[in-house]
Automatic annotation (TrEMBL):
Coiled coil: none
Similarity comment: family membership: Belongs to the DDAH family.
Leader sequence segment: none
InterPro entries, per the entry: DDAH-like
Record's keyword terms, sorted: Hydrolase
Domain of life: Bacteria
Annotated Gene3D superfamilies: L-arginine/glycine Amidinotransferase, Chain A (3.75.10.10)
Protein name per its UniProtKB record: Amidinotransferase
Organism: Micromonospora echinofusca
Amino acid sequence: MCPPEHFTVEYAINPWMDTSVPVDPDLAVKQWDRLRETLVGLGHTVHVLPAQPGLPDMVFAANGAFVVDGTVYGARFKHEQRAAEAAGHRAFYESQGWQFMAPTETNEGEGDFAYVPDAHGGLILAGYGFRTDPAAHAEAQEVLGRPVVSLRLVDPRFYHLDVALAALDDGNIVYYPGAFSVASQRVLAQLFPYAVLADDTDALAFGINLVSDGYHVVLNHEATGLAHKLAAVGYQPVPVELTEVRKGGGSVKCCIAELRH
C-alpha cells in the first residue's frame, strides 16, 4: 500500500475524476490508515511504499504490478501522468528480492489482472478496452506461466478490470456483467457458473473494487446490497469508508497490491 500523502485530483484520466471537486487530504490519510489497520486486524501483513511528490495517483498501489508465485510482472502505464510510478514499484519489489520482469507492453498491473489460484489449475483473468493493451495478456502468460483469459471492458466507467471483477476465493469471483462485452459475459458465465453477480448500484458504488482472503471481504461501505449477497453465500463482509480516494476513481482494491509468494 502507498499512503495518499500527495493525493489530489489534478487531472482527469477516467470518468470519475473531477478537478473541480476538492479532496480533503487529512481525511484521505485517515481513511487510508483505517483500511491498513483493518487489514492488519484481519491478520495480514502490510508493506508500505513511500509516496512520492508529483505522483498523486500512487495511492492506487494495485496498478504498479501483478504478482503470481513470487514473480512480478511490472506495469507500464498508459497515461504519462502516471508513468513515473512504475519505477517506484519496481524498486520496492527488487529491494524485497522478488523476481521482477519488466514489461514491454502497456498494462496497469492488478488494475487489469486478477488471479484465481485453483480455478482450472490457476487462471489469470485480464481486462482490456481502456488501459491495458491485449498484447500484455500474452506477455503476462509467458512471464507468469498461467493461462490468461482476455475479457473486453465496454463501459468507460469501468475502465479497469478491478472495478468490475474480483476474486473471492481460490475458485470463485464476483463481477458486474454490464461492464463486459456480450462475448466476455458468456466466457465468465461458463468459467464461473456460481459467481456472485453485482448490480448497477453496487458496481457504481465501487463495491466490486474489493479484496478477499477467502472469507473476509473488505469492500466499500456504500455497497450494502453486495455485502448482503456475499454474506448470504458464506463470506464475511468488512465495510470501510474511502470517500476521498474514490474521487480519483478507485476504492479498496485499487489501494492494495496483493503479494502472492
